[in-house]
Amino acid sequence: MAKIQNISEIHPTLGFTEFDILERYRKSFHESELGRLHSVFPFEHIAKTVGLSDQHLGRRNIFSPCAKIALMVLKAYTGFSDRQLVEHLNGNIHYQMFCGIMINPSFPITNYKIVSAIRNEIASRLDIDSLQEVLASHWKPYLDSLHVCMTDATCYESHMRYPTDMKLLWESLEWLYRYICRHCVEPGIRRPRNKYRNVAESYLSYCKKRKRKASRTRMLKRRMIRLLEKLLIQRDEIHREYGTLLRYTQDYQKRLSIIRKVLVQEKEMFVGKKVRDRIVSIDRHYVRPIVRGKETKSVEFGAKVNNIQIDGISFIEHLSFKAFNEGIRLKDCIRMQQKLMNVRVRCVAADSIYANNANRKFCTKYGISTSFVRKGRAARDEPLRKVLRCELSRERATRLEGSFGTQKQHYSLSRIKAGNRKTEILWIFFGIHTANAILMIDKIRNRTGKLHDMSLLKESEEVSRLLPELHVLPNKSI
C-alpha cells in the first residue's frame, strides 16, 4: 500500500534547521518552469467548480481534489503514459510538489491505473464552459487586446487505425464469434455451424495481397456481410433459449447494438446507398469521418473543435465528433469572448469560410472590423482598412494556426489515446489549457515586471521631489 502524505502535513515533523533539504527542494521547485506552471493554475477553484470530493480511490485517500486536477495537468505537460507518469511521480520530488503530495520511497505507488480512475472521475463531471470562465477570470488581468477575437477550427485526431469496410466487418465478426463460443461453453451446448473459419482464411489471404481487385473485394465483402447477419441470428437464438443462464455486461450490450448498426450501414452501402452518421470504429463508435480537404489528409477522424483566441490564449467555443460548418459560429464566438472578458469585441480575424453574408452584416451592424476580403465599393478610409485586414490576417495565420501545431506536437493532442468520449474531451481540454498556461507564465512575469518598474519609478519621483528639501536641512538632521 502506498504511503502518501500532503507536504503541509509532513513539513513540521522534519528536524532540520540549517540544512533543510525539503526547503531547498521547494525553493528550486518555485524557480523551475514546473513551479511557475503550478502558480498559473487556480487548482482549488477548478476542483471546487468540478465538484471533486475526497473519495477513496483504492485503499487510501491518496490524492486530494487539487492533486487530481494537478495530475491531469502534469500528464498533458509531460506527455507520459499512465504507467510512465506514476513511475516518474514516485521518483521525482518536483512532480510530487506539483501535486501537493509526498510519497514514501519505501512504499511507492504501484497501481498505475489510479491515473485512469482519476481521469474518468473528472471526465464524468467536466463542464467546459464553467471551467473556462474560471480560467478566463484568473488570467484576464494579464491579457492585452481583449477587444480582438481570432477564431478557427481544427481536428484533434483519435488514436485509431485507418477505417475501411473490410476491417470494420472483420472486427465485428471476430468479436461476435468469440462471444458465441463463450455463450455455448457456459450452458454446455453445441456450437452452431457457420462459415467463420472459411471467411477467416479468405480474409487473411486477402490482407496479404499487395494489389486487390475490386471484384474480389466485393465478393469477400458480400460473404462477410452474410456471415455477420447469420452470427447475429445464431446469437439471438442462443439468447432466446438460454438467456437466463448467461450474464451480459453493459459494455457487451452496447457493443452488440453498435455491431447491429454496422451491419445495417454496410448492407446499405453495398447496394450503393449513402449512409449518414457512418460508424468507423467499434471501440470509438462516437467518431465520425470529417472531410477537411487538407493536402496530406483529406479525411480526419476525431473531435472537431472551433477555438477562439484572445491575446494568444485559446478557448474552446464548440466541440463535436461530427462534422459541422464552423462558418456559422462566428456570432457565437463573439458572444463567448464578450462573456469571458466582459469587453466589447471590436476586431475579428477569421478564415474565409467565416466570410458569409450573414456574418458580414452582423459585423457591420455592430461596428466590428474584420479580416475578410472586401466586397463592393471601397470606402473613403480604404487604405487604413486594408492595413488593418492584413494585420489581422497575419496575426491569425501565425498565432492561432501556430497554436494548433504546438498543442498537437507538445501536449499529447496529435493522436489522442483516450478510451471513451468523455475522457477524450477531458484530454483535449487539459491539453489546450496546459499550452495556454505555458504562455501565461511569460505574460504574468512581464506584467509583474512592468508593475515593479512602475513602482520603482514612482519611488524615484518621490525621492527627486524631496531632494531639494533634503539639501536645505542641516547635516545632523539628515
Number of strands: 8
Give the integer mean of the pLDDT values: 87
* Number of discrete helical segments: 17
* Helix and strand pattern: EHHHHHHHEHHEHHHHEEEHEHEHH
Straight-line N-to-C gap: 68 Å
Largest sheet features: 6 strands, mixed
Report the β-strand fraction as a percent range: 5-15%
Helix content: 55-70%
Specify Rg, calculated over alpha carbons: 30 Å
Residue runs with pLDDT of under 50 for 5 or more positions:
462-478
Shape: flat
Structural class call reads alpha/beta
Structural commentary:
This protein is 57% helix and 9% strand. With 478 residues, it is an alpha/beta fold. Helix 2 (21-31) packs across helix 3. The protein has helices at residues 7-10, 21-31, 33-40, 43-50, 65-78, 82-91, 93-99, 114-125, 128-139, 165-185, 196-208, 214-242, 250-270, 330-341, 357-365, 382-410, 421-472; strands at 4-6, 101-103, 148-157, 289-291, 299-310, 313-320, 347-349, 369-370.
Question: What are its keywords?
Answer:
alpha/beta; two-stranded antiparallel sheet; 9% strand
Topology:
Blueprint: E1 4-6, H1 7-10, H2 21-31, H3 33-40, H4 43-50, H5 65-78, H6 82-91, H7 93-99, E2 101-103, H8 114-125, H9 128-139, E3 148-157, H10 165-185, H11 196-208, H12 214-242, H13 250-270, E4 289-291, E5 299-310, E6 313-320, H14 330-341, E7 347-349, H15 357-365, E8 369-370, H16 382-410, H17 421-472
Parallel strand pairs: 3-7, 7-8
Antiparallel strand pairs: 1-2, 3-5, 4-5, 5-6
